[in-house]
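FIELD: query
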Amino acid sequence: MTATVSDNKATAGQATDHRSGKYLAFHLGNEEFGIQVMKVREIMGVQDITAVPHTPHHTKGVINLRGKVIPVIDLRVKFGLEEVPYTQRTCIIVVQVKGDHASTLQMGIVVDGVSEVLNLTAADVEDTPDFGTGVETRGLLGMAKLKGKVKILLDIDHVLTAHDLTSLQEALR
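FIELD: result
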């Protein structure tokens, strides 16, 4: 019995350790989020986005990034928040996500604004609370507690689901 308890503690400690590191903090409305800096390729102002037919509502279209076509998802719409007009603070974060068969894909996510780069320790991060059955938290790495505020840490590979990637890849063919 003692071995099982210590094994569980070691596993929990390892889970916390992989969540420490640098995060890019951004906001959608009043909520603060963070994604691992190693997933971020670029931050840019909003530019003309070419709409692509037959894509989900949260898919805004594609942009031309130095000769490469990059799909763009409005994270506010994806999360079910009210759609608002873009401002000068609105930006596109280009992220590297896992695609099919261990491939990677660059995608843009539209956010209301970027605030800072956070350096989080394991002590700064807590597990995502249990919201009960029917609430999907797979796209959340945890909750960061900093300066009396909570920032939601996203696992961008799970936030941008296989359905998003498949529908975009099919639309771009």
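FIELD: remark
Confidence is low (pLDDT under 50) at residues 1-16.
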